[in-house]
């Protein structure tokens, strides 16, 4: 008892034994920070809007340290982009330059939900995404100013940042060209059995490109772990979305593919959406929102046999797997004539059967005894292989005959795997590029209104202050430190050397070509390039 009294009278003990409700804000902050970084539950600013899927929960779990990390990262990115603006106007940066200020929550929120083993590919507004993937400020400013210490050795400039070791595959200058490349990365992941995903980012202007739909179709057709992210900042160059798209609901553009509209100015909403997309991509390969994957749920329950009949729709996955893996599925049939046998097998046993068939009249003959006997069998009418070879859309007739006692629907048994589109509703404060003042097609009041009401940094600042994680002074100190880091990086980047003219020919071919070129048809023709 005496020991407890001495402890209570000590400076440390008085803090510990004092009820937390009467501690000051700074005392509460120090008290809780000394303990474990406990989970905070925060609701997103607005609900998710979904297409062909159930949206994720609005309730997001985070921690004090994660919120502080979000604030630091976004403040650093904002300062970096403002500095790039000044360097461009001082003519230290040449060529094209597209700034990301206002959209920082998309890059930071996405990165918090994935790992460096996941791949990211984006368009030309790429500085902040590169930083999230492990790049440094010195690499950023060196590349912007065309110096050797840049991430692309000074030869790429603003639009062509790259960091393979961080899973970042660019920076691409052609509108929409990165989308099929991203699907190609996803194909490589599936081919190599790599349990990761690829995020392909593009803008609302690129959402009208034909290659987007081609890539989406292939991603769905080949079951690729591809997640398409539309960063909708509402202006493609100088054209508002309502002037360029009849339907600006970009998350619905996949038609058959699920979509999710996200508040791209809320870093926690972006985190939740990307986590949701990745989990489903890895589970369902890449993303499906029906009730169960055929092969998996059937094996698990063990009470439903698969019968695959000739000329059925191969994209219906359970039947497709059945055909390929006869060692696993014992009841495969290639003759429609065996349908009668299947029905009587079901009649005599307790096991159910899922029967795929084509355009055979025998199937319809068997519907009557199956229905009269309340047999545990489900008939599905497919289209034939030609349809599935050219489209990822699982279009089937509504002629679904289900005689399971529980009246199970077709979608409850099979899963047709689809990609997903995430639409990030965000906003850029600068113009499209440095040559665009950004005020000819929108008003200054519109820009200032977004800054005041939706700014991603200010939103996190309010959360940090509301939960007594930090003080206003400490947050301002972080902003000062960000300015210092950026200024130091610029100074070091200016000291970096410009590339030598001979570097122009490096990294063009895998094995290197040097500075000589030989004629393709005549070996004696040889030209030395300057």
UniProtKB/TrEMBL annotation:
EC number per UniProt: 1.2.4.1
Domain (Dehydrogenase E1 component) ranges? 72-286, 420-501
What is this enzyme's catalytic activity, as reactions?
A: N(6)-[(R)-lipoyl]-L-lysyl-[protein] + pyruvate + H(+) = N(6)-[(R)-S(8)-acetyldihydrolipoyl]-L-lysyl-[protein] + CO2
Q: Which cofactor does it need?
A: thiamine diphosphate
**In its keyword annotation, does this UniProt entry include Endoplasmic reticulum?**
no
- Give this protein's Gene Ontology molecular function annotations: pyruvate dehydrogenase (acetyl-transferring) activity
Q: Where are the transmembrane segments?
A: 353-379, 400-422
Q: Subunit structure, per the record? A: Tetramer of 2 alpha and 2 beta subunits.
KW Transmembrane (keyword) present: yes
Main function: The pyruvate dehydrogenase complex catalyzes the overall conversion of pyruvate to acetyl-CoA and CO(2). It contains multiple copies of three enzymatic components: pyruvate dehydrogenase (E1), dihydrolipoamide acetyltransferase (E2) and lipoamide dehydrogenase (E3).
Designated name of the protein: pyruvate dehydrogenase (acetyl-transferring)
Q: Which InterPro entries match?
A: DH_E1 (IPR001017), PDH_E1_Alpha_Subunit (IPR050642), THDP-binding (IPR029061)
Q: In Gene Ontology terms, what is a biological process of this protein?
A: pyruvate decarboxylation to acetyl-CoA
User: According to the lineage, what is the superkingdom?
Assistant: Eukaryota
């Amino acid at each position: 008892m005496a020991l407890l009294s001495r402890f209570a009278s000590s400076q440390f003990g008085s803090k510990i034994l004092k009820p937390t409700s009467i501690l000051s804000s700074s005392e509460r902050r120090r008290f809780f920070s000394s303990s474990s970084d406990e989970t905070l539950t925060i609701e997103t600013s607005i609900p998710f809007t979904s297409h062909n899927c159930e949206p994720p929960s609005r309730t997001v779990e985070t921690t004090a340290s994660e919120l502080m990390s979000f604030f630091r990262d976004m403040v650093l990115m904002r300062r970096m982009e403002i500095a790039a603006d000044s360097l461009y106007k001082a003519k230290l940066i040449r060529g094209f330059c597209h700034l990301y200020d206002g959209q920082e929550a998309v890059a930071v929120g996405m990165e918090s939900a994935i790992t460096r083993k996941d791949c990211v590919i984006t368009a030309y507004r790429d500085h902040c995404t590169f930083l999230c993937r492990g790049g440094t400020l010195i690499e950023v400013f060196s590349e912007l100013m065309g110096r050797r210490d840049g991430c692309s050795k000074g030869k790429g400039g603003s639009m062509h940042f790259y960091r393979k070791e961080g899973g970042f595959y660019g920076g691409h200058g052609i509108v929409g060209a990165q989308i099929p490349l991203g699907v190609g990365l996803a194909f490589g992941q599936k081919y190599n059995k790599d349990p990761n995903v690829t995020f392909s980012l593009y803008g609302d202007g690129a959402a009208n490109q034909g290659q987007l739909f081609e890539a989406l179709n292939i991603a769905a057709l080949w079951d690729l772990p591809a997640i398409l992210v539309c960063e909708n900042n509402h202006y493609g160059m100088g054209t508002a979305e309502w002037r360029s798209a009849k339907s600006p609901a970009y998350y619905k553009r996949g038609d058959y593919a699920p979509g999710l509209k996200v508040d791209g100015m809320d870093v926690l909403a972006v985190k939740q959406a990307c986590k949701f997309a990745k989990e489903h991509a890895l589970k369902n390969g890449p993303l499906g929102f029906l009730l169960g994957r055929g092969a998996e749920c059937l094996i698990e329950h063990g009470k439903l046999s698969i019968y695959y009949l000739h000329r059925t729709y191969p994209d219906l996955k359970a039947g497709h797997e059945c055909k390929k893996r006869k060692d696993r599925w014992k009841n495969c049939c290639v003759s429609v004539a065996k349908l009668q046998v299947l029905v009587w097998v079901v009649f005599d046993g307790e096991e159910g059967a899922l029967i795929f068939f084509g355009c055979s009249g025998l199937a319809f003959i068997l519907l009557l005894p199956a229905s009269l006997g309340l047999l545990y069998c489900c008939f599905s009418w497919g289209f034939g292989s030609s349809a599935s070879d050219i489209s990822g859309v699982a279009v089937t007739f509504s002629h679904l005959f289900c005689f399971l006692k529980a009246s199970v629907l077709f979608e409850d048994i099979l899963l047709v795997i689809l990609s997903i589109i995430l639409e990030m509703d965000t906003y850029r404060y600068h113009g499209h590029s440095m040559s665009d003042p950004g005020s000819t097609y929108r008003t200054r009041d519109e820009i200032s209104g977004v800054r005041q009401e939706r700014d991603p940094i200010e939103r996190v600042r309010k959360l940090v202050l509301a939960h007594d994680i930090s003080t206003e002074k400490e947050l301002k100190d972080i902003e000062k430190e960000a300015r210092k880091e950026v200024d130091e990086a610029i100074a070091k980047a200016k000291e970096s050397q410009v590339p030598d003219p001979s570097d122009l020919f490096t990294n063009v071919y895998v094995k290197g070509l040097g500075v000589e070129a030989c004629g393709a048809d005549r070996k004696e023709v040889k030209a030395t390039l300057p």
